[in-house]
Amino acid sequence: MNTFTYRYPVIVYFGEGAAAKNLPAELARVGRNVMLAYGGGSIKRNGVYDELMNLLKAAGKTVTEFSGIMSNPTYAKVQEGARLARKNDIDFILAVGGGSVIDCCKVISAQAKTQEDLWDVETVLHGSPTGFIPIGAVVTAFGTGAEMNNGAVITNEAKRVKGPLWGAFYDFAILDPAYTMTMPMSQVISGSFDALSHCMETYMGSPRETNLSDEISEACQRSIIRNLRATLRNPQDIKARSELVWAAAMGENGMLKIGKVTDFQAHMLEHQLGAYTDCNHGQGLAVIHPVLFRHMLPEAAPQFARLAVDVWGVDPAGKTELELAGAFIDALAAFIREAGLPTTFAQMGIPADTAFKAIADTTVLTAGCCKKFTRDELLAVLLECR
What we know:
This protein is an alpha/beta fold. The protein has helices spanning 18-27, 42-45, 48-58, 75-87, 99-111, 118-123, 185-203, 212-233, 238-252, 265-277, 281-296, 301-310, 321-338, 356-362, 375-384; strands at residues 11-14, 33-37, 62-66, 92-97, 135-139, 151-156, 161-166, 172-175. The protein has 2 domains: 11-180, Rossmann fold (3-Layer(aba) Sandwich); 185-384, Dehydroquinate synthase-like - alpha domain (Dehydroquinate synthase-like, alpha domain, Up-down Bundle). Helix 7 (185-203) runs antiparallel to helix 8. The chain is built from 15 helices and 8 strands. The protein is 48% helix and 11% strand.
């Protein structure tokens, strides 16, 4: 395991009724003017909005609403939120939703405190934001684990780039599995696969020999597989949903990354696909992963072989390491089909004449991947995914 320093700033309140139990005390610590940020309005249909508004009013807060945060949040939406925060002298942001809302608010928190353009500060000048509006998260859609870190994935439509920006850490995150029970099943499935992808991509980084972080990752992967299957059998299984919510958080709270240089090449490729197509993130990962993994053989064979045995239960008897590695990819592909996820871009509605070369040419090449991909190889992956 590599050397590391571990510090974790986010307080997690987990369980049914977590908002009512814990939000009043947190609100007592922040200023009067609160921005309530959310997406398309599902929180108004499922009762979460009314519950939170009552808690905010009981705490004596003046609430400014910021709604309409879209999937694959745009940099323009970040700027809109930052302007609103400045105009209303916002003291605290409460982000309510899934990864898109939660990511967007991390960057709003930073952008509202500076007149500089954060995209240029971070991607051109390689600087970092220094001032933030305090933020808290209420998770209503799981998968991304976005509430656990200060990284955000934002689409800059003007530049045709979907990439990472760094914003604020959340002071606290409320994870009430009951809030996720009204998620559409397609979102449950894609979110679960995103969480599984986070675990796999962290696992594939270096060091590549067995270590504690990877053994914890194996347990998380087994949990996601088992509990997604339970959810597919019974979508109202709150115990299975609770496990999925926490597994998604574990994938991004830093625990699996301790002592690791992570991979995330599949994520980088999917992000740029999203910049050009605005596609569903979890579905895009489901299409890309098996194809990309086959291109990573034999470089990744030792790790793939361990996953085959320790996560997917493949019998190693009589099999070579390379055969076990292939069996892992086969098991993953079969699980993707079992879950009803797409296996081709065509099934996602992505046209065959999409600008795949431009996507490959603008994808970040990650340092932690065990295979050093060229852009031509990434293009070959994308074309095979059609």
